[in-house]
Write a sequence for this structure.
């Protein structure tokens, strides 16, 4: 965690393409109220499919929403993460992340979090049928084994900051 006397801690929020993604502003507001600076990284489908209002999120965070790789010579637009939240986390993202398939900026960032020791909280949004798939169940086991914390039960944006506070 960043030294609170000098700099606010920085939270990466990874947004996936699920219908509920349009409520991500609630999570951002709650995190900001708790003293976090927030940067959003979205899956390409979440941005291209307009699953959430990118302009509103950029206004709320004061930072661009990232979904594409930067060029090596470009400066890093976000400071290093003190923590990450994946919300909503889809079947596809969870399985790719657990399998180490870093084919998007969002999933690559999550894969790097483990090596960097960054705590990650996940709010899954997966329907019951996909949730029963053996690959998904194995992915949950692998990610939990890596120290990733999952919100249980009904989807609530507030669960992310609750889990972060429980540290």
């Amino acid at each position: 965690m960043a030294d609170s006397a000098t700099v606010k801690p920085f939270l990466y929020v990874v947004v996936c393409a699920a219908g509920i993604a349009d409520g991500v502003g609630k999570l951002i507001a709650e995190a900001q109220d708790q003293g976090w600076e927030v940067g959003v990284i979205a899956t390409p489908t979440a941005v291209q499919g307009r699953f959430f209002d990118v302009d509103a999120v950029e206004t709320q965070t004061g930072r661009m929403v990232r979904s594409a790789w930067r060029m090596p010579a470009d400066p890093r637009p976000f400071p290093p993460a003190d923590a990450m939240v994946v919300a909503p986390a889809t079947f596809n993202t969870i399985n790719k992340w657990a399998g180490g398939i870093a084919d998007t900026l969002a999933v690559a960032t999550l894969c790097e979090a483990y090596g960097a020791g960054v705590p990650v909280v996940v709010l899954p949004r997966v329907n019951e049928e996909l949730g029963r798939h053996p690959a998904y169940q194995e992915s949950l086991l692998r990610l939990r084994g890596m120290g990733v914390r999952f919100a249980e039960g009904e989807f609530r944006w507030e669960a992310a900051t609750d889990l972060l506070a429980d540290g």
